[in-house]
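F.,

This is the one I mentioned.
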């Protein structure tokens, strides 16, 4: 039984249900944001990216571009929304900073509402999702046994790409957004693909002696709902992933996320200072560091912490041990 179309359909149906409901509200973008449309878009983007690496590249890149562009816009909303809420609880942060961040959030929501209409995401006939569905439906879907082998090869290439990106950064991180945040994005895809594939990726635990992994296997990671694979369902062929190495990956993603958030908090503060106090970037950063109690350390402390997490993880070659031998 061909599995690929069903994986897309699972998330397309969920997205369409939200789009229909959103179209009846005064602010469709806000409705979609609050109801986690971004996760559905993430999964559809991941599937499109993956299948573009298997077959019918042009069809799936077409789909991926639509899902990615909308997901990126929701990502921008989430970026400003998170810090707006954070700043609201910070008595030191000037109200002008919070209001600026809230305004940026509003601008991004407005942009999404415009795109929803322009690209016909919320049209009565659900034009956009139906067109994407029609295009990918005609793909050269593989039989499950062959497809799983292609998925395994794609996953191996994705792992190699992450490792190469890390090597390119050198031994030191120098940029929160372009290095730490981007590395986390690439690592995160390795955890998204198994979820999006709806059961054809499963854990195995070969009881390999891995004492170096113990530092990653903390309760918050081991017990996380995000680290439970979808049930096998009607899948008959599988890509097997070593559980403890996947949990180690999850630990690094989470740890880098916290570092990234702390660094970006300073950067969004600097952006707000620059635009509300009309100063240059240097002065804006200096004031942002003071507002975040980081004037004595700057962003360097976050870059150092990122290195402390990533260096042993990559030196242990944990990514290349993800797929079961």
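My design for it:
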């Amino acid at each position: 039984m061909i599995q690929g179309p069903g994986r897309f359909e699972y998330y397309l149906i969920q997205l369409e249900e939200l789009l229909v409901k959103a179209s009846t509200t005064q602010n469709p973008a806000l409705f979609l944001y609050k109801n986690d449309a971004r996760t559905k878009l993430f999964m559809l983007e991941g599937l499109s990216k993956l299948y573009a690496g298997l077959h019918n590249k042009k069809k799936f890149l077409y789909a991926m571009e639509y899902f990615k562009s909308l997901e990126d816009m929701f990502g921008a909303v989430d970026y400003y929304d998170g810090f707006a809420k954070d700043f609201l609880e910070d008595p030191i942060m000037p109200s002008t900073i919070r209001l600026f961040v809230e305004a940026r959030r509003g601008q991004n929501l407005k942009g999404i509402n415009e795109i929803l209409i322009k690209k016909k995401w919320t049209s009565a006939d659900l034009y956009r999702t139906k067109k994407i569905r029609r295009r990918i439906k005609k793909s050269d879907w593989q039989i499950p046994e062959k497809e799983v082998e292609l998925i395994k090869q794609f996953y191996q290439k994705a792992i190699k790409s992450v490792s190469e990106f890390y090597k390119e950064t050198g031994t030191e991180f120098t940029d929160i957004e372009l290095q730490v945040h981007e590395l986390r994005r690439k690592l995160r895809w390795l955890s998204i693909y198994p979820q999006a594939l709806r059961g054809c990726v499963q854990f195995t635990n070969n009881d390999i002696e891995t004492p170096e992994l113990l530092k990653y296997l903390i309760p918050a990671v081991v017990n996380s709902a995000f680290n439970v694979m979808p049930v096998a369902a009607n899948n008959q062929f599988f890509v097997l992933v070593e559980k403890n190495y996947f949990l180690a990956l999850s630990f690094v993603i989470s740890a880098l996320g916290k570092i990234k958030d702390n660094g970006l908090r300073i950067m969004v503060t600097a952006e707000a200072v620059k635009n509300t106090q009309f100063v240059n970037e240097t002065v804006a950063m200096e004031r942002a560091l003071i507002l975040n109690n980081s004037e004595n350390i700057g962003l360097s402390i976050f870059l150092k912490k990122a290195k402390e997490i990533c260096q042993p993880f990559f030196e242990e070659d944990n990514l290349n041990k993800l797929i079961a031998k």
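Residues 144-321 form one domain.

Talk soon.
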